[in-house]
Amino acid sequence: MRRLWNKAQANLGFVPNVFRAQALNGEQFLAWWGYFNLLLNKEGFLTVAERELLAVVVSSLNRCVYCAVSHGAALREATGDARTADGAAVNWRQAALSPREQAMCAYAEKLTLRPAEMTEADLAPLRGEGLSDAQILELVQVVGMFNLTNRVSSALGFVPNAEYHVMGR
Fold first, then answer.
1. Domain 45-165 sits in which CATH superfamily?
2. Cys-Cys link to 64, which of 42, 59, 146, 163 (CB 3.0-4.6 A)?
3. What CA–CA distance (Å, rounded) separates 80 from 101?
4. pLDDT tens-place string over residues 72-90
5. Is 119 helix (H, G, I), strand (E, B) or coil?
6. Residue 128 and residue 100: Cα distance in Å, rounded?
7. CA–CA separation, 86 vs 92, rounded Å?
8. 140 — phi, psi (to 5°)?
Protein backbone atom coordinates (compact mmCIF):
# COMPACT_ATOMS: atom_id res chain seq x y z
CA MET A 1 0.00 0.00 0.00
CA ARG A 2 2.88 2.33 0.75
CA ARG A 3 4.14 1.93 -2.85
CA LEU A 4 0.68 2.79 -4.18
CA TRP A 5 0.48 5.88 -1.99
CA ASN A 6 3.98 6.96 -3.05
CA LYS A 7 3.06 6.47 -6.72
CA ALA A 8 -0.11 8.57 -6.27
CA GLN A 9 1.91 11.28 -4.53
CA ALA A 10 4.45 11.29 -7.37
CA ASN A 11 1.85 11.26 -10.18
CA LEU A 12 -0.87 13.48 -8.71
CA GLY A 13 1.00 15.50 -6.11
CA PHE A 14 -1.31 14.15 -3.36
CA VAL A 15 -2.73 10.92 -1.97
CA PRO A 16 -6.44 10.58 -2.83
CA ASN A 17 -8.69 10.50 0.21
CA VAL A 18 -10.27 7.28 -1.08
CA PHE A 19 -6.88 5.58 -0.54
CA ARG A 20 -6.68 6.82 3.02
CA ALA A 21 -10.24 5.83 3.89
CA GLN A 22 -10.03 2.35 2.42
CA ALA A 23 -6.63 1.62 3.94
CA LEU A 24 -8.36 0.34 7.06
CA ASN A 25 -8.60 -3.01 5.29
CA GLY A 26 -5.53 -3.17 3.09
CA GLU A 27 -6.23 -6.56 1.52
CA GLN A 28 -9.73 -5.58 0.39
CA PHE A 29 -8.51 -2.18 -0.79
CA LEU A 30 -5.79 -3.76 -2.91
CA ALA A 31 -8.29 -6.21 -4.44
CA TRP A 32 -10.63 -3.32 -5.29
CA TRP A 33 -7.73 -1.23 -6.59
CA GLY A 34 -6.48 -4.05 -8.82
CA TYR A 35 -9.82 -4.28 -10.65
CA PHE A 36 -10.38 -0.51 -10.64
CA ASN A 37 -6.89 0.07 -12.03
CA LEU A 38 -7.42 -2.60 -14.70
CA LEU A 39 -10.67 -0.95 -15.84
CA LEU A 40 -9.67 2.71 -15.65
CA ASN A 41 -5.92 3.07 -15.91
CA LYS A 42 -4.80 0.41 -18.38
CA GLU A 43 -5.22 0.36 -22.14
CA GLY A 44 -8.67 -0.95 -22.84
CA PHE A 45 -11.32 -1.32 -25.50
CA LEU A 46 -12.78 2.12 -24.72
CA THR A 47 -10.74 5.30 -24.63
CA VAL A 48 -9.65 6.77 -21.31
CA ALA A 49 -12.02 9.69 -21.94
CA GLU A 50 -14.95 7.34 -22.58
CA ARG A 51 -14.27 5.39 -19.39
CA GLU A 52 -13.98 8.61 -17.39
CA LEU A 53 -17.19 9.92 -18.98
CA LEU A 54 -18.99 6.78 -17.80
CA ALA A 55 -17.50 7.21 -14.33
CA VAL A 56 -18.73 10.80 -14.16
CA VAL A 57 -22.22 10.04 -15.46
CA VAL A 58 -22.76 7.09 -13.11
CA SER A 59 -21.35 9.03 -10.16
CA SER A 60 -23.58 12.00 -10.94
CA LEU A 61 -26.66 9.78 -11.19
CA ASN A 62 -25.76 8.21 -7.84
CA ARG A 63 -24.99 11.64 -6.35
CA CYS A 64 -21.58 10.46 -5.24
CA VAL A 65 -19.70 13.67 -4.61
CA TYR A 66 -16.28 12.08 -4.21
CA CYS A 67 -16.39 10.15 -7.49
CA ALA A 68 -18.16 12.85 -9.51
CA VAL A 69 -15.54 15.42 -8.49
CA SER A 70 -12.47 13.19 -8.76
CA HIS A 71 -13.47 11.64 -12.08
CA GLY A 72 -14.73 14.98 -13.33
CA ALA A 73 -11.14 16.14 -12.87
CA ALA A 74 -9.86 13.06 -14.72
CA LEU A 75 -12.36 13.67 -17.54
CA ARG A 76 -11.26 17.31 -17.86
CA GLU A 77 -7.65 16.16 -18.04
CA ALA A 78 -8.41 13.37 -20.54
CA THR A 79 -10.39 15.62 -22.88
CA GLY A 80 -8.94 19.07 -22.28
CA ASP A 81 -12.56 20.25 -22.33
CA ALA A 82 -13.72 21.52 -18.94
CA ARG A 83 -17.04 22.79 -20.27
CA THR A 84 -18.18 19.43 -21.64
CA ALA A 85 -16.80 17.52 -18.64
CA ASP A 86 -18.60 19.80 -16.19
CA GLY A 87 -21.79 19.57 -18.24
CA ALA A 88 -21.63 15.77 -18.24
CA ALA A 89 -21.25 15.79 -14.46
CA VAL A 90 -24.47 17.76 -14.02
CA ASN A 91 -26.65 16.57 -16.91
CA TRP A 92 -25.05 14.54 -19.68
CA ARG A 93 -27.99 15.29 -21.99
CA GLN A 94 -27.02 18.96 -22.07
CA ALA A 95 -23.31 18.35 -22.59
CA ALA A 96 -21.72 18.57 -26.04
CA LEU A 97 -21.36 14.81 -26.54
CA SER A 98 -21.02 12.82 -29.74
CA PRO A 99 -23.82 10.41 -30.72
CA ARG A 100 -21.56 7.53 -29.59
CA GLU A 101 -21.04 9.15 -26.18
CA GLN A 102 -24.77 9.87 -25.88
CA ALA A 103 -25.60 6.21 -26.55
CA MET A 104 -23.05 5.13 -23.95
CA CYS A 105 -24.43 7.55 -21.36
CA ALA A 106 -28.03 6.51 -22.01
CA TYR A 107 -27.08 2.88 -21.52
CA ALA A 108 -25.10 3.69 -18.34
CA GLU A 109 -28.05 5.67 -16.99
CA LYS A 110 -30.54 2.85 -17.48
CA LEU A 111 -28.15 0.23 -16.08
CA THR A 112 -27.54 2.43 -13.03
CA LEU A 113 -31.10 3.51 -12.30
CA ARG A 114 -33.20 0.62 -13.65
CA PRO A 115 -31.03 -2.50 -13.95
CA ALA A 116 -34.00 -4.89 -13.75
CA GLU A 117 -35.40 -3.34 -16.95
CA MET A 118 -32.32 -4.04 -19.08
CA THR A 119 -32.92 -6.17 -22.18
CA GLU A 120 -30.89 -7.20 -25.18
CA ALA A 121 -32.66 -4.43 -27.14
CA ASP A 122 -30.73 -1.89 -25.04
CA LEU A 123 -27.57 -2.96 -26.86
CA ALA A 124 -28.86 -1.86 -30.29
CA PRO A 125 -28.02 1.87 -29.91
CA LEU A 126 -24.49 0.95 -28.79
CA ARG A 127 -23.99 -1.38 -31.74
CA GLY A 128 -25.53 1.25 -34.00
CA GLU A 129 -22.74 3.60 -32.92
CA GLY A 130 -20.13 0.98 -33.78
CA LEU A 131 -19.33 -0.43 -30.35
CA SER A 132 -17.97 -3.96 -30.45
CA ASP A 133 -18.92 -6.68 -27.98
CA ALA A 134 -15.59 -6.14 -26.18
CA GLN A 135 -16.29 -2.41 -25.86
CA ILE A 136 -19.83 -3.07 -24.60
CA LEU A 137 -18.54 -5.53 -22.00
CA GLU A 138 -15.97 -2.99 -20.82
CA LEU A 139 -18.71 -0.32 -20.66
CA VAL A 140 -20.83 -2.61 -18.47
CA GLN A 141 -17.85 -3.40 -16.24
CA VAL A 142 -17.01 0.30 -15.76
CA VAL A 143 -20.64 1.12 -14.95
CA GLY A 144 -20.74 -1.78 -12.47
CA MET A 145 -17.46 -0.72 -10.85
CA PHE A 146 -18.73 2.80 -10.32
CA ASN A 147 -22.05 1.69 -8.92
CA LEU A 148 -20.09 -0.29 -6.33
CA THR A 149 -17.51 2.42 -5.68
CA ASN A 150 -20.15 5.16 -5.44
CA ARG A 151 -22.00 3.23 -2.77
CA VAL A 152 -18.87 2.67 -0.69
CA SER A 153 -17.72 6.28 -1.11
CA SER A 154 -21.11 7.75 -0.25
CA ALA A 155 -21.79 5.37 2.64
CA LEU A 156 -18.50 6.27 4.28
CA GLY A 157 -18.70 9.98 3.50
CA PHE A 158 -15.54 10.26 1.41
CA VAL A 159 -14.67 13.90 0.72
CA PRO A 160 -12.87 14.87 -2.51
CA ASN A 161 -9.34 16.21 -2.17
CA ALA A 162 -9.21 19.96 -2.76
CA GLU A 163 -6.74 19.38 -5.60
CA TYR A 164 -9.41 17.71 -7.74
CA HIS A 165 -11.39 20.93 -7.99
CA VAL A 166 -8.65 22.71 -9.94
CA MET A 167 -7.33 19.86 -12.09
CA GLY A 168 -7.90 20.25 -15.83
CA ARG A 169 -9.05 23.84 -15.63
1. AhpD-like (1.20.1290.10)
2. 59
3. 16
4. 999 999 999 999 999 999 9
5. coil
6. 9
7. 9
8. -60, -40
